Amino acid sequence: MAVTVQARSAGFDEWLQSINAACGRFRATTLGPAFSGAMQAYHTHALRLSIVDAAQTRLYRTRREVAQSNGGYFFTVFQLRGSALMEQGERQACLSAGDMTLIDAGRPSNFLFQHDSQQISLLLPRHYLEEPARRGKVPCAVRLDAGSSLVRFNHQLVRGYIDSPMLGAEESEAMLNALASLLRPLLVGGEATGEEGERGFNQALRFIDRHIQSERLRPEWVAEEIGMSLRTLYRLFARHGLVVAQYIKQRRLELCAQALRHAPAWQKLSHLSDDWGFRDHSHFSTAFKTHFGISPSEYRKRYQ
């Protein structure tokens, strides 16, 4: 039997308490005097979801709130009305009506509701997605576009449950499995095109620049952190005549050359190349000469 908890037109404190009761620990702040919030929660066997109305508020979880909650699931978010900004790690998804995204309940997150927003948040146990995918982390805070037929099917499935919430235990499990089956192609096989693809390409460039000195910087890490498949990342770069690994190498060489022009004479080349991700100095020297036509030491002398 469905249990429905309502907090219509609630005050701020009551609204936050309803969120915490249904979704785990969150913190919140108002963004202005025009805050409004409402909450409806449904719980039927394995199915747990909420309809959340919010305006002029920020809802967020730090590591402290995560530690106080059950992190064994994803918030599967369906935007019904208005807009919302959902952030997690390096990623952010700006949702409009009809869009979807996933948020990992086991990691800090941040949600902004500037204007009148209504969304469904369904708690999807992580094993429904993580075990069958087996391709690394599930990409979260990635906008799943309302124009996708799979996204529309997910919306219809969830709305159907809200209209008729009297499901048995096996039916509840079957619905979660159906949701996960519809989500998997979106998460591991989706390929951005057009304007969305260009945004993904620019996001990858920004991520590479932010982490250019990290030893972890590889195409696989870039794709995972910005929420796209490795195949999609390769294709986005190929459209611009680039290869991801080569671009990272060339970008490091360019920034290293920039640092060389301003480095003091006493600074060792090996230390400088190490700072920019080149752990093998002989490999760095060869790569530098191939790219610029002269050795790093000659390059430095020229600019000094």
From TrEMBL:
What does the record list as coiled-coil region(s)? none
State which gene encodes it: feaR
What is the originating organism of this protein?
Answer: Serratia rhizosphaerae
Q: Which UniProt keywords apply?
A: DNA-binding, Transcription, Transcription regulation
Task: Name all HTH araC/xylS-type domain ranges.
Answer: 202-302
InterPro entries reported in the protein's UniProt record = AraC-bd_2, AraC_XylS_family_regulators, Homeodomain-like_sf, HTH_AraC, Tscrpt_reg_AraC-type_HTH
Name the record gives this protein: Transcriptional regulator FeaR
Superkingdom is Bacteria
